[in-house]
Write a structure and sequence with these properties.
eight-stranded parallel beta barrel, 14 helices, single chain, five-stranded antiparallel sheet, chitinase activity, 478 residues, globular
């Protein structure tokens, strides 16, 4: 029973196998959440980077989030930010209904609408949340909007309470807004989630974590943008660990300490890298850089490069780039130098994704979230990555079945589901296999006057008893 309490839901995982030929496991092979944000403006990108909703693969996600809708301040209601893309009116493309319509063939899929985002700002949401009458009007109107277009719920992306023109009272008012939405949404069997900033300062000032956790179904933790060109030096976008507070492990552990249940935390993964320009030759992490990074050819945002842009560039011009793995950050560093100037991209490879999934499994989190599917290699144009599970099974106590490198479309998304199973198997084995004694006690040493060897022998016997009991529990689980 102890093992079952420590590893919820993992008994059934032991009966499952990975899909072969590098195709990746689909979400029904495990019990974790895989939440996929779709930045719908990606359809306007050029060439092969253009991402229509037809490119979305529902088999790789449990939840899909349509990003973004906005706030109509006059009506206290949700509004479309791109009517031609979102709606069917005036011969529009009907994106809302196209995404929700995918549930007909994929009934496992939950489809949510996200309201907010960086460009929507913070001030208008601060003003809404501060006014009880406006909040109540919004709650009713939001329910009507979600039901009208057939969504399974609403995702709040207020970036960020108390910041960017917000007020200190936002922290309390955000809880009030979430509570009132939750009360109505739960009566209508609808989901309510929120994107949560991952920086310590943002968490501490913006969120009453324990209160929000009562009303939200999931908290999507945006574990990226810890560093960027704005710092004036080269830094990891989404480090797993670091010497400061700016890392994935600290963010998740801090939220847990503040009262967020692991069963509601969804770890965010970036399908993009941060770019830097440095006047130093062969620049590395920590070196000085310009305040503005270079853009990707399709996303065209300074300091940003989608994973698909990175891996296609590496495939086209492999000799131009040097790849280095940073073991502390668990991120890949790509460096291009002409002798006096360096271009650097710090991004998440399949190895990075697998290591973060492993962390999420060990923390018993609800699952993983991605921003965003449209910058994965959704066309399947990039080279295989052979080192995805290089950091697994490093204790010499497990025998893992490692899947082949993922090939074809969506290598990062496929890695998530494969890594959930590999990481769960690894953790199960570590909890089942007993520690071996350092050495076999010599004959007759149990009578040693010091008692030291006697204690060692007793520990070995106890380990064997625990192993027999644990093995019995494992059989019952299966």
């Amino acid at each position: 029973m102890l093992l079952m309490n420590r590893l919820p839901g993992l008994g059934c995982l032991m009966l499952l196998s990975l899909v072969g030929s590098g195709s990746g496991a689909i979400v029904t092979d495990h019990d974790r959440v895989v939440t996929c944000y779709i930045s719908t403006w990606a359809v306007y990108r050029t060439g092969s980077a253009s991402y229509p909703l037809d490119s979305f693969d529902p088999t790789l996600c449990t939840h899909a989030i349509y990003a973004f809708a906005g706030l109509d301040e006059e009506k206290n209601a949700i509004k479309s930010l791109d009517a031609w893309q979102d709606l069917k009116d005036n011969y529009g493309k009907g994106g809302f209904e196209k995404l929700t319509g995918m549930r007909a063939k994929h009934p496992h899929l939950k489809v949510l609408l996200a309201i907010g985002g960086w460009n929507e700002g913070s001030e208008k949401y601060s003003n809404l949340a501060a006014n009880p009458e406006r909040r109540q009007a919004f709650v009713k109107n939001a329910l009507d909007f979600i039901k009208q277009y057939g969504f399974d719920g609403l995702d709040l992306d207020w970036e960020y309470p108390t910041q960017r023109g917000g007020k200190p009272a936002d922290r309390e008012n955000f809880v009030a807004l979430v509570r009132e939405l939750s009360q109505l949404f739960r009566k209508n069997n609808l989901l309510l989630t929120s994107a949560i900033g991952a920086g310590k300062d943002t968490i501490d000032s913006a969120y009453d974590v324990k209160a929000l956790s009562k009303y939200l179904d999931f908290l999507h933790i945006m574990c990226y943008d810890y560093n960027g060109s704005w710092d004036g030096k080269i830094g990891p976008n989404a480090p797993l660990t670091s010497r400061d507070f700016l890392n994935v492990e600290y963010s998740i552990e801090h939220l847990l300490e503040l009262g967020a249940p692991a069963s509601k935390l969804v770890l965010g993964l970036p399908f993009y890298g941060r770019t830097f320009v440095s006047t130093m030759a062969k620049a590395r992490l920590g070196d000085t850089a310009d305040k503005v990074g270079f853009p990707g050819p399709a996303t065209k945002e300074n300091g940003f490069m989608g994973y698909n842009e990175v891996c296609e560039e590496l495939k086209r011009n492999p000799s131009d780039w040097t790849l280095e793995w940073d073991s502390t950050a668990s991120e890949m560093v790509a460096i291009k130098s002409n002798g006096s100037v360096s271009q650097v991209v710090v991004y998440d490879s399949t190895r990075s994704i697998a290591n973060k999934v492993r962390f999420a499994i060990r923390q018993k989190l609800a699952g993983l979230m991605v921003w965003s599917v449209d910058t994965d290699d959704f066309n399947g144009l990039c080279a295989l990555e052979e080192d995805t599970y290089k950091d697994f099974g490093d204790r010499g106590r497990v025998a893992l079945s490692i899947p082949p490198p993922v090939s074809g479309k969506y290598p990062l998304l496929k890695t998530i589901s494969n890594a959930v199973i590999v990481a769960s198997d690894e953790l199960t084995q570590e909890n089942v296999i007993p520690h071996e004694p350092d050495e076999v006690p010599p004959a007759g040493s149990a009578t040693d006057a010091s008692g030291a060897t006697l204690v060692s022998a007793s520990s070995w016997i106890l380990a064997m008893v625990l192993f027999i009991g644990t093995a019995t529990v494992t059989v019952r689980m299966l």
